[in-house]
Amino acid sequence: MKASQVIIEIHPDAPPKPAAGAPCNGCGVCCLVEPCPLGVLLSRRLSGACAALRWTGARYACGALAAQPGGLRGWLVRRWIAAGAGCDCSFDLGDKP
């Protein structure tokens, strides 16, 4: 394995990663590779899966957003995780088995 390779464990029922700029579908790849700015604070790490990431049974979701769905706190969480901005994950999944 090359030093630049990263292995992430994705739930087998997770939706496929969308194209860059497409709406988020809850694939979880971005949060499994590295936490967003809020995730860095919550996870206390710069790489690896975000501690706030939750599997809902059909998709991945941000646990921080679920805990603060509305009001100013919800707005801040959505801003920090770039909710609604479209997929910005450039991680290449390569050939999946």
Can you tell me about this structure?
The chain is mainly alpha-helical and 97 residues long. It has a domain at 29-80. The chain is built from four helices and two strands. The chain has a two-stranded antiparallel ribbon with strand order 1-2. A hairpin with a 4-residue loop joins strand 1 and strand 2.
Short description:
With 97 residues, the chain is mainly alpha-helical. The protein has helices at 29-33, 37-43, 63-67, 71-80, and strands at 53-55, 60-62. Strand 1 and strand 2 (60-62) form a beta hairpin.
Give short descriptive properties of this protein.
97 residues, mainly alpha, two-stranded antiparallel sheet, 4 helices, 28% helix, 6% strand
